[in-house]
Amino acid sequence: MQKKKKKLGLLLILPSGGFLVFVIVMTALIAATNPLNLLRNPLANAAFNANAVPPQFRSFVAETGNVCPEVTPTVVAAQIDQESGWRPSIVSPAGAVGLSQFMPGTWATWGGGAAQTDPRANIMAQERYDCHLAGEVRKMQAGKYGTCTMVMHGKVYTKPGPKAGEMRGEVFDLMLASYNAGPGAVCYYRGIPPWDETEGYVPGIKNIMSKYSAPQIVSAVYSGDNKTLGGRAVNLAKASIGKYPYSWGGGSFTGPSEGFAQGAGIVGFDCSGFVRYLFHQASGGALKLPRTAGEQAGVGQRILSSVGPPSKAEEAKMQPGDVIFFTTSGGRIGTGATHHTALYVGNGMTINALKTGTIIREDPFSRFLVRGAQDVWTVQRYAVATTAQA
Predict the structure, then answer these.
(1) Is 258 a catalytic residue?
(2) Domain boundaries 220-381, CATH class
(3) pLDDT per residue as tens digits for the range 39-76
(4) How many Å apart are CA 345 and CA 364, to the nearest integer?
(5) Dist. CA 252–CA 46, nearest whole Å
(6) What is the pLDDT of residues 97-151, one digit of tens each?
(7) Contact 3, 129 (CB under 8 A)
């Protein structure tokens, strides 16, 4: 963050504009995100290892990952590790305060009126600020940023904003550089500023991210047998990781599509749209599952119905290519109470379209149990001639 650049004396100058304009711009930018930027940074979308976070902050960090595709719990945790070492009351020599080391002036904009040493407020503000910076970078890349302004050694430097294609680097890297040096400096230099601290900050955060990423399981389950329907679905799901954003109501039998409501303007999949697409394609067009998760939970062969972490005996019954459904406690399976679905790929892992602001990704089965400890989870197995259950 620019607050740490004591030698350079950088001052972040944000473009003018009201909060409503910011919300509108950010919504449009998130919808227009280029997934290739995310594919080059796989750790940004890796499953979150919550156990690496100090227990008192775990639930707060797990709440993040909802604002923009670039910022996940893994990213937030790595930055806090670097910025403050998880010390909520720390004050830097430059006057930066708290877990995320905001300067008081910046905190006044992003802190939402909370105390600057409030851990949860810091974490939520950091996510919002990071996503704002990602939006600024996308404007730079599109040639729509305006004038680049920075202050260095007490002198103001300005330069016309970059034209489309002039920026060097990916959104993710430039977002991190903007956090450290300020977006004005990133704009001015058309990429990561040539300063030792900032040039070290970007790879440093990426390195720390591995500490907060769940181990990636490399197993035969990720190379499904193309002779079976489930195996083909697994392979197709694996090939989809990182390619398509979550879009409420999005997804057709043949591919991603624009959703509606919060999915308006976003071409991608929601959870059930993704499952329906996988099995239609894996079956060569023969299998046409219903549209919603509730409807899909009522067709095929019911393998399991349980609550809480699966036992070893239950895991033994599951096969890669099975589909897991999560139903709110007290709700009826196969109705609107069935709120999420994910493709099981073995070894406790799934591939799914999780929620707005994410892309198709791997998540451990345990993630969904943390979010809904009392959810009833059921497992369905499909065949080409899948029919509704009695």
Answers:
(1) no
(2) alpha beta
(3) 345 455 556 888 889 999 988 998 888 788 889 899 99
(4) 10
(5) 26
(6) 999 999 999 999 999 999 999 999 999 999 999 999 999 999 999 999 999 999 8
(7) no
In this structure, the chain runs to a length of 390
Does domain 2-212 sit in CATH 3.90.1150.10?
Answer: no
For residues 388 and 240, give the distance between their C-alpha atoms in angstroms, rounded to a whole number.
28
CA angle 108, 114, 116 (to 5 degrees): 70
277 by Cβ neighbours in 10 Å (0-12 / 13-18 / 19+) ranks as: buried
Residues sharing a CB contact under 8 Å with residue 245, sequence separation 6 or more, in sequence order = 33, 35, 69, 266, 267, 268, 358, 359
- For the cut 60, the answer to whether the pLDDT of residue 389 exceeds it is no
Region of 320 (left: φ > 0; alpha: ψ -120 to 50; beta: rest) is beta
The pLDDT value recorded for residue 388 is 57
Mean pLDDT of the chain: 84
Identified catalytic residue from 70, 83, 136, 170: 83
- Label residue 167 exposed, middle or buried (CB < 10 Å: 0-12, 13-18, 19+): buried
Cα-based torsion angle of the residue sequence 220, 222, 228, 233 in order, rounded to the nearest 10 degrees: 170
Domain range list for the chain:
2-212, 220-381
Single-letter residue type at 235: N
Cα–Cα dist 36/48, whole Å: 21
Q: Do the bridges between strand 148-152 and strand 376-381 make them parallel or antiparallel, or are there none, so unpaired?
A: unpaired
- C-alpha to C-alpha distance for 112 and 271, rounded to whole angstroms: 32
Residue (of 343, 345, 350) closest to 365 by Cα position: 350
pLDDT digits over 242-292, tens only? 888 999 999 999 999 999 998 898 899 999 999 999 999 999 999 999 999
- The answer to pTM > 0.70 is no
Report whether 141 contacts 164 (CB < 8 A): yes
Which pLDDT belongs to residue 367? 76
